[in-house]
Automatic annotation (TrEMBL):
Descriptive protein name: Glutamine--fructose-6-phosphate aminotransferase [isomerizing]
Active site residues according to the UniProt entry: C2 (nucleophile), K608 (for fru-6p isomerization activity)
Presence of keyword Repeat: yes
Matches recorded under HAMAP family: GlmS
Name of a matching Pfam family: GATase_6
Cross-referenced Gene3D superfamilies: Glucose-6-phosphate isomerase like protein, domain 1, Glutamine Phosphoribosylpyrophosphate, subunit 1, domain 1
Gene this chain is encoded by: glmS
Lineage: Bacteria, Pseudomonadati, Bacteroidota, Cytophagia, Cytophagales
Coiled-coil stretches: none
Keywords: Aminotransferase, Cytoplasm, Glutamine amidotransferase, Repeat, Transferase
EC number(s) per entry: 2.6.1.16
A single GO cellular-component term on record: cytosol
Domain SIS: 290-441, 462-603
């Protein structure tokens, strides 16, 4: 939530920052702004709306040359999206400018204090309070800006990644973080800062992930990092493996479509090096040191939000079926405040694409404090969750830029499937021959997803028919119940059509009242252990004249005779079906949203990385 970019070096800062902000726009797009420093002073330019609107605004200024600058793209927390609340914010003297990603929880107390001292506030943001608070400390203590930041950070409560420019030190950026991500790109005589590595990758692959409670003082050719206790640290320089093409659209109209189409590859990448069915080899590297804990866990608790929580629900079926360990799947936001009963025999799996979700991070900290072992399933390398967990496995889906999660979901399920099979086998719950059968089938999944993608033309036609529907119901059972939830979430978040997912059998306990000839009902009715039951549920909808769109297994004839539309996906093991059955639902949502003129990559009110609770 909120993207920040900064640059100091030999280049023109503005183009680097604007390009970076565009890459980070998925984090929020309520407003955008930059601050630049040159002979004419420290100037801020900001605008409500997308980075492109800021760009158009900047075109009206002639000389913006600067070798140092900061930029921000906002997802509004305090104060509505408008020009005034946009970042950067000046300090009272306008000598400092700051960008901030996060939330300062005690900002009202600080603001009242500052107002009593005569400070005036122009915006409704906590961030303006933050920089004015820093300046107040700077004035009162007659200290350096770095020292003022350090003292301020001891007093603020909340989360932040900040970068500050100072008119009196025109070659220096001061950055700090707690709770919100901040990556420093290390170039030749230049430094880049950003909320994630995507704005940095085209300039350098050397990055430092700033840790919580660290302050960096960055000049063109000098970087110093200290803790807020003033102890110098010696940061580790990571080599990024990300390729530039991975963060570009590559000929697709939208990132979401590109990412849907990447799934055969991303699932294969997730399994690469971990699974070799011919030799029966299944290695989940991250588990190595924790296998004992995992195998002997009395309970597996999965915690996540949104789509990642849906992947967790699929994993509940997987772990219980294959490993016979009880599983609970928890919304991180509920879990963290529920005083849950937890102990050192619990194995907690935290799932997160971004690795930055505030609620998931808080749930991890809580579980850690109770002695549980925490395993992370994250996509973003070096993210906060990846670093906060005891161990973990990356999903290797590559950067996911579309706000609606697609390839991250199937990659999460892929990792969790590998974990469940490994655990089940180690615990002696899966016989050797069955295990080999499952491994062989798992290897065929990328090819089957490829085939599911060939349904695109058919889904465009279905989308055309239902694009103006006001409601949708998604129904599935067993492994396809989380898929129904995910299908509904995909549709509502990008097309703004109200959609609900339900276990198919629950329909008659309420939602059936909604069904009439106007209501499209998407059934995920693949041939599995609950197929016959789902067929009965389809009959019930048909009897009430609902429109039936059914995802079925190739060759199905029973449902064909009942449904208005059937979408045939390749058959596979019941446990692996979600990896395939979700694909047509992703495509259906995508096409409906495009036909309705929605911005599928940046749906309203959403942000990809939810760093506030
Ligand atoms: C939906 C979506 C969100 C995320 C959720 C958790 O398409 O993307 O529901 O799944 O915000 O985010 P991560 O996985 O980054 O923790």
């Amino acid at each position: 939530m909120c993207g920040i970019v900064a640059y100091v070096g030999q280049k023109e800062a503005l183009p680097v920052i604007i390009k970076g902000l565009k890459r980070l726009e998925y984090r929020g797009y309520d407003s955008a702004g930059v601050a630049l420093l040159n002979e004419s002073g420290l100037s801020i330019y900001k605008k409500k709306g997308k980075v492109s609107e800021l760009e158009a605004h900047l075109d009206t200024f002639s000389s913006l040359n600067s070798k140092i600058g900061i930029g921000h793209t906002r997802w509004a927390t305090h104060g509505e999206p408008n020009d005034v609340n946009a970042h950067p914010h000046y300090s009272a003297s306008e000598k400092f400018a700051m960008i901030h990603n996060g939330i300062i929880e005690n900002y009202e107390v600080l603001k009242t204090d500052l107002q009593n001292k005569g400070y005036v506030f122009h915006s409704e943001t906590d961030s303006e309070v933050f920089i004015k608070f820093i300046e107040d400390i700077h004035r009162n203590n007659d200290c350096s800006l770095e020292e003022a930041v350090r003292l301020a950070l001891h007093k603020v409560v909340g989360a932040y990644a900040i970068v500050i420019m100072n008119i009196e030190e025109p070659d220096t950026l001061i950055a700090a973080r707690k709770g919100s991500p901040l990556v420093i790109g290390v170039g030749e005589d230049e430094y880049f800062l950003a909320s994630d590595a995507t704005p940095i990758i085209e300039y350098t692959n050397k990055v430092i992930y700033l840790d919580d409670y660290e302050i960096a003082v960055i000049r063109q050719n000098q970087l110093q990092i200290k803790t807020i206790e003033n102890v110098e640290t010696h940061p580790y320089i990571n080599q990024l493996e990300m390729e530039l093409e991975a963060i570009e659209k590559g000929g697709y109209d939208h990132f979401m479509l590109k990412e849907i189409y990447e799934q055969p590859r991303s699932i294969a990448d997730c399994m690469r090096g971990r699974l070799d069915a011919s030799s029966g080899r299944l290695v989940v590297g991250g588990l190595r040191d924790y296998m004992n804990k995992f195998q002997n866990a009395q309970r597996i608790i999965i915690t996540a939000c949104g789509t990642s929580w849906h992947a967790g629900l699929v994993a509940e079926y997987l772990f219980e079926e294959f490993a016979r360990i009880p599983v609970e799947v928890e919304y991180a936001s509920e879990f963290r405040y529920r005083n849950p009963v937890l102990n050192e025999n619990d194995f907690v799996i935290a799932i997160s694409q971004s690795g930055e979700t505030a609620d998931t991070l808080a749930a991890i900290e809580l579980a850690k404090s109770k002695g549980a072992t925490i395993f992370g399933v994250c996509n973003v390398v070096g993210s906060s969750i990846a670093r906060a967990t005891h161990a973990g496995s990356y999903t290797h889906a590559g950067p996911e830029i579309g706000v609606a999660s697609t390839k991250a979901f199937t990659a999460q399920i892929s990792v969790l499937t590998l974990m469940a099979l490994k655990l089940g086998y180690q615990r002696g719950m899966i016989a050797e021959t069955r295990y080999m059968e499952l491994l062989h089938e798992l290897e065929t999944i990328p090819g089957k997803v490829e085939r599911a993608l060939q349904l695109n033309e058919q889904l465009i036609k279905i989308a055309e028919i239902y694009k103006d529907a006001r409601n949708f119901l998604y129904l599935g059972r067993g492994y396809n119940f989380p898929v129904a939830l995910e299908g509904a979430l995909k549709l509502k978040e990008i097309s703004y059509i109200h959609a609900e997912g339900y276990p198919a059998a629950e329909m008659k306990h309420g939602p059936i009242a909604l069904i009439d000839e106007e209501m499209p009902v998407v059934f995920i009715a693949t041939k599995d252990s609950s197929y016959e039951k789902v067929v009965s549920n389809i009959q019930e909808v048909k009897a009430r004249k609902g429109k039936i769109i059914a995802v079925v297994t190739e060759g199905d004839t029973t449902v064909k005779n009942m449904a208005d539309h059937v979408i045939e996906v390749p058959s596979t093991e019941e446990a692996f079906v979600p990896l395939i059955s979700v694909v047509p639902l992703q495509l259906l949502s995508y096409h409906i949203a495009v036909m309705r003129g929605c911005n599928v990559d940046q749906p309203r009110n959403l942000a990809k990385s939810v760093t506030v609770e």
